[in-house]
Amino acid sequence: MNSLLRILYLEDDPKDAELVQVMLETEGFDCDVTRVETQVDFSTLLERDDLNLILADYTLPSFDGISALKLAVDKRAEVPFIFVSGTLGEEVAIEALNIGATDYVLKTRLSRLVPSVVRALREATDRAERKRAEQSLRRSETYLAEAQRLSGTGSFGWNVSSGEIFWSDESYNIFEHDREVKPTLELALQRTHPGDRDLVQQTIDRASSERCGFDFEHRLMMPDGSVKCIRVVAHPWRGDEPGGLLFVGAMTDITEERWAQAERERLEQRLRQAAKMEAVGRFAGGIAHDFNTVLTGVFGYGEMLFEKIPADSPLKRYAQNVLTAATRGRELVDQILTYSRSQRGRREPVDVANVVAETLELLRGSLPAGIRLEASAPASPLVVIGDAIQLHQVVMNLCSNAIQAMRGGGILRVMLETAELCAERAPSHGTLGTGDYLRLIVEDSGSGMDEPTLARIFEPFFTTKDVGQGTGLGLSLVYAIVTDSGGAIDVKSAPRQGSTFTIYLPRSDPTLTTAESGPPHRLDLSSR
Predict the structure, then answer these.
(1) How far apart are CA 460 and CA 79, in angstroms?
(2) How far apart are CA 289 and CA 281, in angstroms?
(3) Phi/psi class of residue 454: alpha, beta or left (left: φ > 0; alpha: ψ in -120 to 50)?
(4) How many CA atoms lie within 13 A of 89 on its CB side?
(5) What's the angle, vertex CA 276, arms to CA 275 and CA 277, rounded to 5?
């Protein structure tokens, strides 16, 4: 043997101890034997870290072997303990083995000692290896569980033949199932979003029949109504059973990643939209300025013709039509200039409730039959910093579009309310910081819009109206005014489900209203 065998020997006879050492060394053991006779010495030497073997006589003058065995099992259970005694009855031997002794050898049969020591050391080595392996396994399992928790990844196994499924702890966390519940394929499908169940079922059916792996994403419906996105990856494994098929894989919660990706795509789309609108605005503004110059000449010569043509001449009407057309052209130029922000509105405190009330008074007189107008607003002033005329245009454009979307009748709701945002928010168009806002909501029960239309409604010159029915600048103007005022717009619509435009504008101190704002004019809440 190459390593030193350190032995603690409880024995009162030095000659017996010497004989045992000689026998072991004869068989190739390099021994370091420490003989003790008392409980104190025995207990003290048990603390040695390098102890390999304990030998003990059964009877001693001041101590006994059974007591020594119990002490050794308590303090150093991993060290083999062998009785070497002249007298050891069968009942005592059985008791000793039950307590924890490795073996016993009678002094009258010392030929058994070396094989007993060899076996005891081998078993001790095996136990130590198993213990290290178990500790390593537990450590690996702990590391794996923590890594899965941090990464939001759970593992699973699926025995296709028996239908048995194994989930790791993190898999239970992802599905938000109690660990007392045994996972099944039906249970997983119940959690799967209804819109993705066919995809999941088709994927696992194909993988089972073709014995191939799979890698796909789908959604889960949580008990609280929230939605998770997960990625599932697995590969087939034949296992130990002939013809058997198992899938071993992992599932990862990618909800935050997908939401972040969707938000990034939405912001990129808004950035492209804003850049396109800005470019078109600059282009339109340049054309509008040049066109305005042309209209100046048309107005000048048209007015001179109108003055010089006799009243009874049919040419008088022609000149008037020229001036009328020029006036409409100038109004269009004004809209284009306002959109392009080359004519920024005034900045003063405005009570929006007054603006909305006045606009609705104008609309009520021309509402088509079958359309009912409902309005509501708080009693206190709702003041923003802006241009009353431009805000009037916002309300008028939104309400006019809503009325035109309800050709068969319906309800037009106009609501004013306050909103306090405690965190940043990104509505469909624009970004809102924390603070107090006024919220103008214009809701109709009309034809609604599909996704492609929603994506373009604020583009200049884009319109769904018939030729000659609109310029396509109304909502572009709304967008320019609102964003120029530090606000944002949220639009919700679907075909045949109406549309809702929500305008956010930063609120100002209600005591800052000016004389131009006029006296408080509350919204008439009666339906017409």
Answers:
(1) 88
(2) 12
(3) alpha
(4) 2
(5) 90
Query: The tokens of 478 are what?
Result: 């709304």
DSSP string across 166-192: EE-HHHHHHHT--TTSPP-HHHHHHHB
Q: How far apart are CA 116 and CA 6, in angstroms?
A: 16
Instruction: Report the C-alpha gap between 291 and 244 in whole angstroms.
Output: 80
Tell me the three state secondary structure of residue 94.
helix
SS3 383: strand
DSSP assignment of 257-311: HHHHHHHHHHHHHHHHHHHHHHHHHHHHHHHHHHHHHHHHHHHHHHHHHHHHS-T
CA 129 vs. chain centroid, Å, equals 44
Q: Which of 277, 259, 244, 102 is nearest to 159 (CA)?
A: 244
Q: Which of 18, 88, 9 is nearest to 53 (CA)?
A: 9
Q: How far apart are CA 464 and CA 457, in angstroms?
A: 9
pLDDT in tens, the chain (528 residues): 457 899 999 998 999 999 999 999 988 899 999 999 999 999 999 988 889 999 999 888 888 889 999 999 999 988 999 999 887 778 888 888 899 898 989 888 888 899 999 999 998 888 888 888 777 767 766 665 666 666 668 888 888 878 888 888 888 888 988 888 888 888 889 999 999 999 999 998 999 888 899 999 999 999 888 899 999 999 888 765 666 788 888 898 888 888 888 777 777 776 776 666 666 666 666 777 777 788 888 888 888 888 889 888 888 888 888 888 888 777 777 766 665 554 456 788 999 999 999 888 888 877 888 999 999 988 888 899 988 888 988 999 899 989 988 988 899 999 999 999 887 787 888 888 889 999 999 999 998 998 888 888 887 767 766 544 555 677 888 888 888 888 999 999 999 899 999 999 999 877 765 444 445 455 554 444
